[in-house]
Amino acid sequence: MPKSPFEIPPSDSFLNAPLRATIDLQALADNWRFMSRQSGKARAGAVVKADAYGLGIEDAGQTLYNAGARDFFVAVPPEGETLRIYAPDARIFVLSGLWEGMEDIFFDNDLVPVIASEEQLAFWMRTVAEHGDHPCAMHVDTGFNRLGLSMEDALYLASDVSRPASFSPVLLLSHLACADDPASPMNQKQLEAFRTIRAAFEGIEASLSASAGTFLDSDYHFDLTRPGISLYGAEAVNGVANPMKPVVKAEARIIQVRNAKAGETVSYGAACTLNRDSRLAIASVGYADGYLRNLSGHGVALRNTGLSGASGFIAGHKVPVVGRVTMDMTIFDVTDVPEKAVSAGDYIEVFGPNMPIDDVARNAGTIGYEMLTSLGLRYERHYLEAE
Ligand SMILES: *Cc1c(COP(=O)(O)O)cnc(C)c1O
Fold first, then answer.
1. Could you tell me if 259 and 343 lie in one domain?
2. Which string of b and e fits 89-127 if b means at least 16 CB within 10 Å?
3. pLDDT digit string (tens) for 315-357?
4. In angstroms, what is the span from residue 226 Cα to ligand 1's centroid?
5. Which partner for 379 in 21, 116, 308, 330 could form a disulfide, CB atoms 3.0-4.6 Å apart?
6. Taking residues 166-186, what's their average pLDDT?
7. Do 103 and 38 lie in a common domain?
8. Is the distance from the beta carbon of residue 139 to the nearest atom of ligand 1 less than 6 Å?
9. From the CA of 108, how far away is ligand 1's center (Å)?
10. Same domain, residue pair 203 and 332
């Protein structure tokens, strides 16, 4: 990764960590600027829920703020409370809205609830009638069937002259179900429904697209986009080259390199039989670290469907996982790497610039989002500072 003059040198504990993640904040900032350009006339927000997709909301939040983001989205109020320290004058939207009894955290930290249901709407109206004006956003469901007022309820609300003056939505929001598939007819259907809602609430800003929707045409941009996964470097749209810079390099230390003979078996269940004399590197990463058991070379349900397992990367070589991934360790076949190039103490890249996270995720039948948000607590993290 490129060196930045602002880089803080890695600590000894990072240099010796059994498991470590390097997080390139410059790449994160560059990815946000890319999504900002991709958003055309719309402003680009930044989604930092789930601890900024596992990378750390403090560092990621501050970096995105410094890059220019002023509209942030979190899932739950405590995430907003943390982010507020790093994004002092930004607008922070809370996507799951609010629960009765949690209103103070919204007022104290100036968080904007994204009203998600009729119950939340009724509660919020009572609350602001007492407390006074406080911004909110309104989620309207256009076909996802997760959160949001129904179209009918939203249209009724738009024409309801009796709604209190202290009820002041600043954003209309909806979420696309199939934006990762540009050819899906759902996109156009949801777009049309959202336009109807927007017309009913004239003068209120609108936001429809997460990362994938931002890559659809400019009709989907409205006033504000909500990129998440693209900022963190993983792929948002199926079947096209990912234009984002990788942000995370995850590496596991090799505990030992051992020789094994053809015909011997490897790992739990003796589910993998070696077909040649092999050198095996035992790396300090397992399913407790989010290196999913479905990445196993042999011996788990998904593998028996005929997909090959995942690979790591070391000394210029892709090295396949052999046998089952265990809780704390994974076994890689390093037979094809020159013997001198792999020793105990070296690091295998489990995903990163040389081993795209989405390729690894596909091997487990999942997506980069899940790999990132599953990074466990055992990763020692080192941040490369952004300029
Ligand atoms: C998670 C989420 C986003 C961000 O989605 P990405 O696919 O990560 O860009 C945007 N909007 C809503 C409502 C979300 O739940």
1. yes
2. ebbbbbbbbbeeeebebbeebebbbbbbbeebbebbbeb
3. 999 999 999 999 999 999 999 999 999 999 999 999 999 999 9
4. 6
5. 21
6. 95
7. yes
8. no
9. 25
10. no
